[in-house]
Task: structure prediction
Amino acid sequence: MSNNAKLQKEAMHVLKLTSRTFYIPIKLLNTTLRQTVGSAYLCMRAIDEIEDHEQLPSDVKQHLLRSTSQLLQTTFDKKAYEKLVQPYENILPEVTLRLSDWLDVCPEGILEKVKESTGIMADGMAKWVEKDFVIKTKEDLDDYTYYVAGLVGVMLSDIWEWFDGTKTDRELAIGYGRGLQAVNMLRNVDEDADRGVHFMPDGWTREEMFDYASKNLAQANDYIASIKTKNIITFCKIPLALAERTLKALKSGHEKMSRSDVESTVDEILNEQ
Result:
């Protein structure tokens, strides 16, 4: 097995361990897109794990995120990254420690775009770590969800255009990411509260957060409607359908969808295509 093929296999394995939700649609993509989206997702997840880490102090998170952002804006010095994360290698997850591997499996033609979006995300996350995730207004919420999720939508749009010329509306792409993130926030509200984080703007009720999620998920539907490539449509529909059904479950007082609900949702989408 070639080194690249071995890395590809390891990337999919780490992806499966890291995100059940995104592993399913990524696995369904054709070979080129699976390799590209898988690599891009792992790059963003690598920095997300720094932002969310429960043991790292705020100043360390900021240093790691800003330094990684700077490295992503250059040719990415692997040795410098290894030196950066080495003091924390016992507590950082594999997906973070192996960021340079995920960049290695990304096709050269789209690598710079993936680095650009991931670098912007890392810098934005550092800003919000510094602010202690204090969200006071809807503008704050929009800013935070742009950095942690809207940029995923932007990066995917770049990948679609690179792959076969598919052009999409970047604002709708950001809405798609925001919608998925808002559902996660609603689902994890108690867990976040336990670690002292409250993502709802001052004065907002749970209903207003549901409304925020619904409006952004509506943008996600508009985003998908503009895409013609079947394989990309299938990929985009799965996280959206899971988010919409999770929102419905949360509204009716359930914490999350069951594994069988997830499987039946995926099967429905596959049968539609």
User: Anything to note?
Assistant: The chain has a mean pLDDT of 93. The radius of gyration is 18 Å. The chain has two domains: 1-126, 133-273. The chain has 14 helices and no strands.
